[in-house]
User: Fold this.
Amino acid sequence: MQDSIRVGIAGLGTVGSGVAKILLSNAHLINSRCNRKIELTAVSSRSKSKQRGFPLKKIHWEENLINLARRDDIDIFVELIGGEGNPAKEAIEVALNHGKHVVTANKALLAKHGHQLAKLAESKGLSLKFEAAVAGGIPAIKTLNESLAGNKINRLMGVMNGTCNYILTRMENANLSYEKVFKQAKDLGYVEADPTLDVGGIDAGHKLAILSSIAFGTEIDFDSVYLQGIESITIQDIYQAKELGYRIKLLGVSQKTDNGLEQRMQPCLVPANSAIGQLENAMNMVIYEGDNSGPITLSGAGAGEGPTASSVLSDIIDLARDNKVPTFGKPVTELVKAIPTSRPAPGAYYVRTKLKDSPGVLAKMATALGDHGISIDRMRQTQHEDVAAPVVIVTHKTLPETLSNALTAVAKTGVILEDPVVIRIEDIQ
Amino acid sequence: MQDSIRVGIAGLGTVGSGVAKILLSNAHLINSRCNRKIELTAVSSRSKSKQRGFPLKKIHWEENLINLARRDDIDIFVELIGGEGNPAKEAIEVALNHGKHVVTANKALLAKHGHQLAKLAESKGLSLKFEAAVAGGIPAIKTLNESLAGNKINRLMGVMNGTCNYILTRMENANLSYEKVFKQAKDLGYVEADPTLDVGGIDAGHKLAILSSIAFGTEIDFDSVYLQGIESITIQDIYQAKELGYRIKLLGVSQKTDNGLEQRMQPCLVPANSAIGQLENAMNMVIYEGDNSGPITLSGAGAGEGPTASSVLSDIIDLARDNKVPTFGKPVTELVKAIPTSRPAPGAYYVRTKLKDSPGVLAKMATALGDHGISIDRMRQTQHEDVAAPVVIVTHKTLPETLSNALTAVAKTGVILEDPVVIRIEDIQ
Assistant:
């Protein structure tokens, strides 16, 4: 056996404690798989006295995580305190500058500073690893960075925020409003302290930006991710979508188009019988479309102590086995600046609105849409044409700006009673 | 950049040609991801004159694959000729004895000689890699061997033979008999030269044995895989299963039980709305249940030029990046002999038979079953009790031997007209 490899963990919350527990409970198995002992030598967290389900006795305690990052007796610094800036960022820099590999689950930090940190790590010949930052226990990073490394990636997609998927499936299954389910999720501890990180799509957007960098060889560009949250999704839209054979998901899509890199995280209608359509509760799923592999679909728990800790362990074990891959798929010096697309690819759209209670309003709306280049695939009105019932339209593929202009023209005809709800329909299997 | 790494491919059939084409078409991308050039220096195959869609001009041609395996100008020997014995086995041994890493897609060879070949490879400090041997383009090996290395695996499951899944889903969707669909599959070139490899479950059994070794740290033990093919599945059973909310899949299950290692590859009823239940056509799926990760599900194309070549590339790229993992999850010297279980875990069962056209036959059957410890969950008879219509029974969990004894007792009562069809029901989500 080689010398043991020594780990320091900053942050003993759910995930950090989970990692420590696995290192203790599965020690024999892990050491044998690595042909090397992995030792947890030092930790740092807010409260030393908190009960965490594992013994701290033989582990050095550091009050200050910066001191942990530069300890001589650690080889791997595991950052699990979170936050897009300091002290996490500073601690990682200190660790790299002191010759430690870094493992983190911090997607916010990576989305903002990942490129700079990767540059620092690679300049020192060190690894910066983050399997746990995207999609919990699912091997989203390794599959893209290693298994599919022989492929050009045509498109990547995913449901990457368990809280949003929980809210959307729960609304449908329990027939409850967004507000009611949001409150339940909050009470269950599913929602981040700043809820817009989850329901605003920001957290999932961070993950999408990380995957895009690896898939397309571009520097992380979170700022150009088109973001739309799930806050305005109503139970009515969920049921209308269901009637049409769709479910609504907070879906991330990233692809290289002729106009540049398209990255968007937004509620979408997806076919109810597709794998993503059937994803329930807090599960996550990613789909990679490689030019040779075809679509590869991965799913599993997107969060939680065990799954996230399992992914942190995967990174630690890679390091114990002396395995290295470029942080973002290629040496960081070869990544190119992303050129964000000026316009997303054409898509079909779901449009819901309410029409005035007078004869001929449907025809007026359809005509106005047609005049502005929108062709209608399906139209549904649950009640008689002349009653102010919701009307739902599914368009053929069009550019979002074309649709937006057309809807402005419809509004000018004076037939609609409320602002249309517009949701993209994503073409997946 | 490092020195280039040099590849020799033995076998330029579909997959071998696919690998060569990708090495040429995606060369720039792959070299940049490896920070190293991957060169295809030499090949060997049956016919030099055959058109393969890529230029052979700058590549050395070897008539004899053993000569290819010992060439000084290759670092990686890629074996894609297949067959569980020589010449594939000899060629791999020669390659390892001459200091070459080996990449293969040959599950039959691995199931039989994998342990011995791994021993040779590891004794020489070389890698024997086989991502393409299991589940085509899906990263089944890497996920288990690396991503889940921090987990005890509780159970692994999978649909790993695309031909069988194609046949079973096509029977249902086109309402055709096994024989008719088998012939179609054969005409489409989906069936191996020896069809029992596919429809007899042998090929899938090979794959299951390989995964079991990695998951449970045991020497490969294909001989103790319980094998049952799909040849006797009728369209009637497919529809009866559907009515009960199930679909029939050739499902592999492997788990450690109190009685030892249980490995079985057999047709099973699985819930129609489960991920495996919804797997269509030639797709493959594996599910790993880690003690921390929870269930991780992977799916994609189980065969075909692009997907399989993508997995071969994944192995080659790992080697180009100098990344190494133990062949079967642990150093081969630490693998223990598998102790096959003496009896599979209890399961629910589907039983279909035909009863005599006389009063009280159902009651007689139910009584005989009950007397022998079989408790009935559901019973269906499509027509009136006294007509010789098929009767379908779903049992509660029981041991297969208990059920078998009970059915013998039922037969002795003289109420049944044909031998019962018995299919296991697998408890998955």
Summary: The first strand of chain A starts at residue 5 and ends at 10. Chain A has a mean pLDDT of 94.
